[in-house]
Amino acid sequence: MIYSMTGYAVASADSQRGALTLELRSVNSRFLDLQFRVAEELRAAEPLLRELISARIGRGKVDCRLYLGKSAAPAQQQLNVQAIQQLRGLASEAAKAFPGSAPLRTVDVLRWPGVLAEPAVDEEATRAALDELARRALDELAAARAREGAKLAEAMRLRASEMRKRLTEVAPLVPEAVATHRARLAERLREVLDAGVEERIRAEIALFAAKSDVDEELTRLDAHLAEVERVLDKGGAVGKRLDFLAQELNREANTLASKAAGLKIADCALELKLLIEQIREQVQNIE
Known about the structure:
Blueprint (H helix, E strand, L loop, with lengths): L6 E8 L4 E9 L4 E7 L7 H11 L3 E10 L8 E2 L1 H17 L8 H6 L4 E2 L5 H48 L2 H20 L5 H14 L3 H20 L4 H21 L3 H21 L4
Parallel strand pairs: 3-4
Antiparallel strand pairs: 1-2, 2-4, 5-6
Helix pairs in contact: 1-4, 4-7, 4-9, 5-6, 7-8, 8-9
């Protein structure tokens, strides 16, 4: 499977600390570049997130944002017995000092600082919730990147197929174009050189034939296209390999254009360069 470096995912879950929301955004990058924005209460979770993301993503700039909100189900508060006993002693002392004062009401007791205690946070439970949340978000991100990658791979296959058609069309034209250009060159040489210099003419024509021989370039272009198709079928993290192949294709197309012995061959070389550039644009988005 081919993966794009562009994708987006978001996942939410409740935890003892509150509502957790993890947002992942990924864009193109030469290497894996992780950026984190984590709620201060969850700062200790960054190493876990870094480890999970690095295990699933090989290349791209990933922006990871972890938010902490209020939980839909409020935490179960407990009475602090020790605080109540202290408050009872203080109330008794106050009643002696102020005999006519009204006794403490229950609502007053509950409002007293420290009477209602929050349950202790289970860090292991929080870590487990974050682990599950991150895996769900990464699954969603991988699915988005895979869908985009499939489209990019199909676009590159179409460009490679078009290039094969151009090579099939140009191959039969090469011998005729070379022969025609060779005849014209011989005629011009005879016009500008004195009679009896056939050896010089044959040498110049042989040199031209060597320089205009594009069989090697056509063979290499065909081999590179076969490798592109093989890499696309193999899948995985193939962006760097495809980028290298695109450079090699472009180099061969440039050589073909410089050796072109006819207008049709030159036009074909230009069309090949255009298709190769379109492939290179797609490759920049692939992991």
